[in-house]
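TASK: fixed-backbone design
INPUT:
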């Protein structure tokens, strides 16, 4: 496999109104469950388990942009050569809500849009499972995955038994800073300093931006009230009105950081390698970061579950994952990758805390939370945030 040359990822666009309504629909439908139990085809009704079998044919995989190494001998090509399976790898998951809005009508009919795997963030994977849209996974069919899954990701709150999700990559949301032009930015609250007016951005992802603002104000996001979330959204709206905030972004802020149109931002840890400016670095906020994972899931109606399971196993082989991690530079979910880097003499990668963060490094971080309260409360918070984004 060739060493990939990094290219700027396509930006994850902000959520459009239709996508917002789709997420609101998720909350509303989920609220119809019995005390939060799964609904639709969740664990109590209509459960399907992804079947193994002969690995052959074709498979379509939907993923986020920039999540695959490049080159003629990349991971997709290697998988095709090893298995004979033809892979249609599509980068069409640009935003969790947008992707859900596009696919939900088919998922509701038990169809997958031809996909056998797609990758969504923790909270969206849980919503899809509760709505009965995902197949469960028999651990016996994924020996490589569960032999190499890092311990910290074995029992996440959204899927404690890993019934329906396999981490693709994990990451940290914190601060992206031009250390020459904004050396004093160490807390998210520093983004609101008037000296940086018009030169800062925040993410259009509710579960990244608002929890970081809560942490900066000394509030545990996992215990915050609805009103505390709304207060932070109001603070964000004031920053928009005053011109303090340049704009909301997906990871297109990387180009702004490269060009120095922006000198500080809320950003994702793995994007450091995409910013072509030696003065820019990702920083752990003083009060800690937000932790999350993007997960491989198998939808109901998937046309080739044996190949989907084989793909999951294949990408959890440490040498395969090392090639991915060298390009992606997010937190790898696979054990043994550090040792591969050391054997290859890639000391900088082996010692990179953004790929291999220690417990000490992330001691003040918080797992990405949902807004608190009922579906109606979550809808109110989501609507308030979206009102700020759309003006």
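OUTPUT:
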């Amino acid at each position: 496999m060739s060493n990939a040359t990094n290219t700027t990822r396509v930006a994850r666009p902000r959520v459009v109104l239709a996508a917002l309504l789709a997420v609101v629909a998720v909350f509303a439908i989920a609220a119809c469950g019995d005390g939060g139990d799964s609904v639709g085809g969740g664990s109590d009704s209509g459960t399907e388990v992804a079947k193994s079998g002969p690995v052959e044919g074709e498979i379509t995989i939907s993923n986020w942009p920039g999540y695959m190494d490049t080159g003629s001998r990349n991971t997709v090509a290697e998988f095709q050569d090893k298995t004979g399976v033809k892979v249609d790898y599509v980068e069409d998951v640009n935003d969790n809500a947008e992707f859900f809005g596009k696919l939900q009508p088919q998922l509701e009919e038990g169809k997958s849009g031809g996909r056998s795997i797609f990758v969504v963030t923790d909270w969206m994977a849980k919503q899809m499972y509760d709505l009965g849209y995902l197949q469960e996974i028999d651990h016996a069919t994924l020996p490589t995955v569960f032999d190499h899954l890092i311990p910290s990701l074995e029992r996440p709150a959204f899927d404690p038994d890993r019934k329906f999700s396999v981490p693709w990559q994990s990451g940290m949301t914190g601060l992206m800073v031009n250390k020459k032009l904004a050396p004093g930015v160490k807390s998210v609250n520093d983004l609101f300093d008037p000296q940086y007016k018009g030169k800062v951005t925040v993410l259009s992802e509710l579960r990244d931006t608002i929890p970081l603002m809560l942490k900066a104000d000394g509030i545990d996001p996992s215990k915050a009230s609805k009103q505390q979330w709304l207060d932070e959204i109001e603070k964000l709206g004031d920053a928009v009105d005053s011109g303090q905030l340049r704009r909301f972004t997906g990871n297109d802020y990387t180009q702004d950081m490269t060009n120095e149109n922006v000198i500080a931002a809320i950003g994702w840890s793995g994007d450091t390698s995409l910013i072509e400016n030696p003065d820019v670095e990702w920083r752990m906020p003083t009060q800690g970061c937000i932790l999350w994972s993007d997960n491989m899931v198998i939808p109901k109606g998937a046309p080739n579950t044996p190949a989907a399971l084989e793909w999951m196993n294949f990408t959890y082989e440490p040498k395969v994952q090392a090639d991915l991690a060298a390009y992606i530079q997010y937190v790898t979910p696979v054990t043994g990758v550090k040792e591969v880097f050391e054997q290859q003499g890639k000391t900088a990668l082996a010692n990179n805390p953004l790929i291999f963060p220690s417990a000490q490094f992330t001691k003040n971080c918080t797992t990405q939370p949902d807004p608190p309260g009922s579906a109606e409360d979550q809808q109110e918070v989501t609507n308030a945030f979206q009102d700020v984004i759309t003006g």
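COMMENT: Residues 171-290+366-370 form a domain with the D-Maltodextrin-Binding Protein; domain 2 fold (CATH 3.40.190.10).
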